[in-house]
Amino acid sequence: MTATDPVKAVSLPVPVSIDPSIAPPGTRNFRDAGGIPADQWHADQNGETLVPTHCCFCGVQCGMYLRVDKHGKVFGVEPRNHDINRMRLCPKGINAYQQVNHPDRLTAPLMRRSRDEEFKEASWEEALDFTVSEIRRIQQAYGNDAFGLLGGASLFSEKTYLVGKFARVALKTKHVDYNGRLCMVSAAGANKLAFGIDRAGNPFSDILLTDCLLIAGSNVGECFPVMTQYLWGARDRGASLIVIDPRETAIARTADIHVALKPGTDAAFFNAVLHVIVAEGLTDETYLAAHTTGWEEVKQTVAAYPPARSAEICGIPAEQIVQVARVFAAADKAMAWHARGIEHHSQGVENCLTVINLCVATGNIGKPGAGYGTITGQGNGQGGREHGQKSDLLPGGRSISNPEHRAQICRIWGIEESELPGAGTSMMEMVWQMQRREIRGLIGICNNPFVSLPNYAVVKDGYDTAEFHAQFDFFLSETAANAHVVFPVTTWAEDEGVMANAEARVVKHNKAQEPPAGVRTDTWVICELARRLGAGHHFDFPGSREVFEELRVASAGTVNDYYGITYERLEETGGIAWPCPSTEHPGTPRLFEDGRTCHPDGKIHMQVVEWHPPMDAYTEEYPLSLTTGRTVAHFLSGNQTRRLGALVEQTPRPWVEVHPSHGFRNGDPVRVVTRRGSEVFPALVTEAIRPDTVFIPYHWPVPTAANALTIDALDPRSKIPEYKVCAARVEAADRIDEVPAPPTAPGQEAYPEAQVSRTDPLPPTSPQGRGTAERS
Amino acid sequence: MMGRTIFIDPGRCIGCQACVSACRECDSHRGKSMIHLDYTEPGMSVASLPTVCMHCEDPVAPCAEVCPADAILVTADGVVQQADTTRCIGCANCVNACPFGVPKIDLQAKLQMKCNLCYDRTAYGLAPMCATVCPTGALFYGTLEELQAERPGVQVADSFAFGDVMVSTGVAMVVPADKVQWPVPGGLPVVEVNGVDVR
């Protein structure tokens, strides 16, 4: 027996030496699994158990076992032979368990009546009562919409469902949104426009079958390391690899074609690629005629993007455009996967649409090894918006503006349609509304906008202006430190629930240990707040299982149909891709195999895209592109990973990556200046970046926060911020001590050798090898 | 020929250090990693390379040969163990002798520590922790046949030239096909000794 999935079209590069029967789901320890004599496995003798679950971090959702000692405490990790990852884990996954019993865990509510006071530990009664009294005060004085709610895409889907329901039914506000807004909403918007469904078209396993893999704006090696096993599997079978990225990343280094285009020029590039494909007669006209609308308009538009024009816009040789077009179009089966690199733009939706146009024009849709996908950054970036947490969506991906959809959900929730608010605004817009005092109170659940939103000065001002702010978290994040009330809640290992990964495969996380004394689940806190707000009868949920049952019903019959997915099935199968309309349905790992999309006419609606420049104009004063991204050791705002010793040792602080042509030496203090402000970073001088581009990883707070410099311009459709490009300049900083030491974190004591020097002003090691290596 | 062992493929390494973190989780040296992650072209490229103990076979493990306390034992299946805690005197002879720069000394404990091929796992049929988790397969555990079945045409080398000294190892390195005929240069770029091509 293995951790099987209903879709197992191909065999993955499994480490063949490992007996797949060693630890099937439900196995409590190695001895039960067979193969290891009970009297010779000392961990087993100590009463260790293994709890099958998944990683809490990115959208790959690797299977793992948490090792639990005889006292019921999580103390380690063991690889799990799950279909998604086949034992593989990245450093974040390996170290994730250390957060569970970390000394920084919040174990009592923190409270203060004004931001001038220090936090004091409070009882749950006090904290809940104060929060409810502030909600009532603000809503009575300024209206229901003066209170907002911000959820998170690291929450289980059950909790995201509760966040949306709580906002509309208990708070009666239209202002609810979530941090998935900062993740893949551009891709979601594009997918919905083109296909009528918001998810990747193919499972990861299809990558192994493709002949040509195009990766656009995704540093797979650092952001989704475990996905590289699929990439290498395709390479082993002879697939070509095309990487579009301004930096020569670990994946780009080994690609057949690496296009290092200037940030913010993706639409011009992809239009030109399609131009060449059309000009050379490489389109699949039969497919286009049968399955698409809008092709003629798209064809006319791309005619205005000859390679020479786009090459100038993108800052690349025109030959590369021709080369990419020929390689992609010549492949029998080609796929395109993209991520934040093309999505974090003021034309993020349009960028994704140009990639979709490329796949569609070559007939690469709905077949094994041919299709498109977006790689979700957050664990539940996909599932987090499917059930009503997003400002414009109701459960099941229903539109909150559609009268029929509203009526359906009101029936399930038992409320009058007149009681259901309309669409609210996006996460960044809510911050602007706080600045304008249109939103005066806010609850944040599982998010850290002080690090993750662009233009930090605006974000801080918005939150400081709010009269009341409560935050749910298990560590005191930079944003929680601004709050009036902080509720200590569970980690992913202390509750059960589901997440949907980048393939839209729903997987189940299991509870590995009881939460520490004083800690409650998010579900309990939301339901308790609802009860105190007089809406308790709508929130009678003892736990995640009961919420999931309501979620299944609420999604039935929609595009995002979860009805056929049950906890029991998830435990048996290792994951089911939605839509799954009945308990007999195997799930839908690959979309459009019958040639029909989710639009009523069953066609793909191709969209015209014209390239326009980024919002922040280049001038003599700001001639460079600043782009941001992740490093492999850290996750998003770093609230979790910046506390784990091994990860801090691996990447202790941010840096600015600059080309040697700027004249800096490795480690020089460099001031990066944008129209939002300036900060000093140590230089990482490398030829692996364009001379007109600089890069800063964004996981750290001020004074080394990339997002103190980035622009809060939004895509007009998806409202995603333009993180990936803004105008900047670099200059030598005066003193080396302008480079601040990284923040201290008690978790570093976990491993003695993981201590990092607090006095060393320069990066001791080079992240990803672009500096001097140091042996520990 | 080599049996079940680790194969290192630098072409696949993405420098993520999952192996380093995984090594820390190994029960025999929990909290300490025995893997080095090296960067081959700093400032030029992101190329990286994990180094584990190569489990030298010929000459028999230089670290074990020079150990004055006979603390480093070699098992029948060729695994060069880390120092026996009851014998090691922390003299660091092994550190100086190792041509690959692998062993580490814990000065406080006066103890040498190094990769022992996860003997606590491999003895029971599991792969070493580093090769189990490696997201890209840059560290692969298995037989040569298993590796080649998965990666058609892959070539490996298990001998290294350090000047005029040859070292054959239990752990093998994936190399470009045109380089497999002679040992992989490990130390100084010497190809001739006393007029003889030592490749």
From TrEMBL, chain B:
Entry keyword set: 4Fe-4S, Electron transport, Iron, Iron-sulfur, Metal-binding, Repeat, Transport
Keyword Lipid metabolism among record annotations: no
Alphabetized InterPro entries for the sequence: 4Fe4S_Fe-S-bd, 4Fe4S_Fe_S_CS, ET_IronSulfur_Cluster-Binding
Gene3D superfamilies per the UniProt record, alphabetical: 3.30.70.20
Protein name as annotated: 4Fe-4S ferredoxin-type domain-containing protein
SUPFAM superfamilies referenced in this protein's UniProt entry, alphabetically: 4Fe-4S ferredoxins
Taxonomy, superkingdom: Bacteria
PANTHER family: ANAEROBIC DIMETHYL SULFOXIDE REDUCTASE CHAIN B-RELATED, PROTEIN NRFC
Phylogenetic placement of the source organism: Bacteria, Bacillati, Actinomycetota, Actinomycetes, Kitasatosporales
Pfam family membership, one: Fer4_11
Residues covered by the 4Fe-4S ferredoxin-type domain: 4-34, 79-108
PROSITE patterns recorded: 4FE4S_FER_1 (PS00198), 4FE4S_FER_2 (PS51379)
